[in-house]
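Entry for the shared binder. Reason: the reviewer on the internal report wants the predicted structure included alongside the sequence.
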Amino acid sequence: MLHQKNLTILALFAGLTVVCPMALADDPVQASVQASPINARNLQVGDHAPDIYRRYDKALADWKSRGLKTPQSQSQWVQINDKYMLVHTTNGQILAVMPIER
Protein backbone atom coordinates (compact mmCIF):
# COMPACT_ATOMS: atom_id res chain seq x y z
CA MET A 1 0.00 0.00 0.00
CA LEU A 2 2.81 2.40 0.89
CA HIS A 3 4.62 1.51 -2.33
CA GLN A 4 1.52 2.32 -4.43
CA LYS A 5 1.09 5.67 -2.64
CA ASN A 6 4.72 6.56 -3.34
CA LEU A 7 4.28 5.68 -7.02
CA THR A 8 1.17 7.87 -7.23
CA ILE A 9 2.98 10.84 -5.69
CA LEU A 10 5.98 10.29 -7.98
CA ALA A 11 3.73 10.13 -11.07
CA LEU A 12 1.93 13.30 -10.03
CA PHE A 13 5.23 15.12 -9.48
CA ALA A 14 6.61 13.93 -12.82
CA GLY A 15 3.46 15.15 -14.58
CA LEU A 16 3.75 18.60 -13.02
CA THR A 17 7.39 18.99 -14.02
CA VAL A 18 6.43 18.38 -17.66
CA VAL A 19 3.31 20.61 -17.68
CA CYS A 20 4.68 23.66 -15.82
CA PRO A 21 7.58 24.51 -18.15
CA MET A 22 5.32 24.16 -21.18
CA ALA A 23 2.78 26.55 -19.66
CA LEU A 24 5.49 29.10 -18.91
CA ALA A 25 6.99 28.82 -22.37
CA ASP A 26 3.75 30.01 -23.95
CA ASP A 27 3.64 33.29 -22.00
CA PRO A 28 3.05 36.02 -24.64
CA VAL A 29 4.29 38.79 -22.31
CA GLN A 30 7.77 37.29 -22.19
CA ALA A 31 7.81 36.61 -25.93
CA SER A 32 7.89 40.25 -27.03
CA VAL A 33 9.95 43.27 -26.08
CA GLN A 34 8.72 46.70 -27.08
CA ALA A 35 10.93 49.71 -27.56
CA SER A 36 10.30 52.76 -25.42
CA PRO A 37 8.14 55.34 -27.23
CA ILE A 38 10.26 58.18 -25.82
CA ASN A 39 13.71 58.95 -27.10
CA ALA A 40 14.99 61.27 -24.36
CA ARG A 41 17.75 62.62 -26.63
CA ASN A 42 15.15 64.23 -28.91
CA LEU A 43 13.01 65.88 -26.23
CA GLN A 44 12.32 69.57 -26.83
CA VAL A 45 10.47 72.45 -25.18
CA GLY A 46 6.76 71.64 -25.22
CA ASP A 47 7.28 67.86 -25.18
CA HIS A 48 6.36 65.77 -22.16
CA ALA A 49 9.21 64.27 -20.14
CA PRO A 50 8.96 60.68 -18.91
CA ASP A 51 6.95 60.53 -15.66
CA ILE A 52 9.98 59.63 -13.56
CA TYR A 53 11.37 63.16 -14.08
CA ARG A 54 8.29 64.69 -12.43
CA ARG A 55 9.28 63.09 -9.11
CA TYR A 56 10.85 65.41 -6.54
CA ASP A 57 13.75 63.03 -5.92
CA LYS A 58 14.90 63.64 -9.53
CA ALA A 59 15.16 67.42 -9.03
CA LEU A 60 18.61 69.02 -9.21
CA ALA A 61 19.13 70.61 -5.81
CA ASP A 62 22.22 72.48 -7.00
CA TRP A 63 20.63 74.08 -10.07
CA LYS A 64 22.02 77.51 -9.17
CA SER A 65 25.65 76.33 -9.12
CA ARG A 66 25.07 74.80 -12.56
CA GLY A 67 24.15 78.23 -13.94
CA LEU A 68 20.43 77.47 -14.35
CA LYS A 69 17.71 80.05 -13.77
CA THR A 70 15.32 79.84 -10.83
CA PRO A 71 12.66 77.19 -11.49
CA GLN A 72 9.12 78.47 -11.89
CA SER A 73 6.41 77.45 -9.45
CA GLN A 74 5.59 73.73 -9.77
CA SER A 75 8.66 73.05 -11.90
CA GLN A 76 12.11 71.60 -11.34
CA TRP A 77 15.39 71.19 -13.16
CA VAL A 78 16.34 67.60 -13.98
CA GLN A 79 19.16 66.03 -15.94
CA ILE A 80 18.14 63.85 -18.87
CA ASN A 81 21.17 62.39 -20.63
CA ASP A 82 23.35 65.33 -21.74
CA LYS A 83 20.82 68.12 -21.08
CA TYR A 84 19.23 69.97 -18.20
CA MET A 85 15.48 70.24 -18.59
CA LEU A 86 13.02 72.37 -16.67
CA VAL A 87 10.01 70.11 -16.17
CA HIS A 88 6.56 71.12 -14.94
CA THR A 89 5.85 68.74 -12.04
CA THR A 90 2.09 68.52 -12.52
CA ASN A 91 1.85 67.78 -16.24
CA GLY A 92 5.43 66.83 -17.22
CA GLN A 93 5.75 69.48 -19.92
CA ILE A 94 9.31 70.55 -20.70
CA LEU A 95 9.59 74.31 -20.19
CA ALA A 96 13.29 74.82 -21.00
CA VAL A 97 16.27 72.83 -22.29
CA MET A 98 19.90 73.66 -21.60
CA PRO A 99 22.87 71.64 -22.86
CA ILE A 100 25.36 70.51 -20.23
CA GLU A 101 28.64 72.32 -20.77
CA ARG A 102 31.63 70.06 -20.36
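Summary line for the report: The chain has a mean pLDDT of 79.
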